[in-house]
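Input/output pair, single chain:
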Amino acid sequence: MSDLINEHDGADARSRILEAASALVAKGGIAALTTRAVAAAASVQAPTLYRLFGDKSGLLDAVAEHGLATYVARKLQTEPQPDPVQNLCEAWHDYVAFGLANPAVFAIMNDIGRAGPPSPAALAGIAVLRERVGRIARVGCLRVAEDRAVALIHAVGTGTVSTLLSTPKKERDAQLSLLALKGILAVILNERAAASHDSAASLAIGLRAHLDEATALSPGERLLMGELLERLTH
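Output:
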């Protein structure tokens, strides 16, 4: 019985800490997140913070995950577009809106000088982006390889939000995000009436996206086919 109570208390303490830490970060940025401030706001002792999150870096990652999960949960209530390109465009606008509305969380997710692997929140965001790009590849509309498309979109998206955040609100270019998106789409998407080389590359990218489903081929044959299709994408 005591174990159940302790488990419940731990979950409750974690929730209070995340809410308190998120509020502090939203109000005063990352610098406002101190052990003393969080412990006081969440009505817990400092050792509880270390037990649940390890250190400040772990708490920051949890705050970013919490903020992203809350935002994504609201977005999941809307039906996705059947057009994968339109879905990607909506994801872009959502990402920019999230970054502008949550600058501190965005900073945690995209800590360029971070030692070690990316934050869990950043990895979750990239996973969603990879799924969106994969859908475009599967319908044969991608001009470049999937990994390159994901890297380009992530780099330009992060740069766009960072640029807007570093610019005073009254001086921000309202068209910057849209122009950046159009530039990315022009690079990664093909046209149905494109030149034969681009059409072959797009078909190869689309086929490669379905390669794991080709159960009629042996693992070795799929590997060889993947290498051949990869050549056609360049």
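Residues 200-232 form one domain. Confidence is low (pLDDT under 50) at residues 1-8, 192-199.
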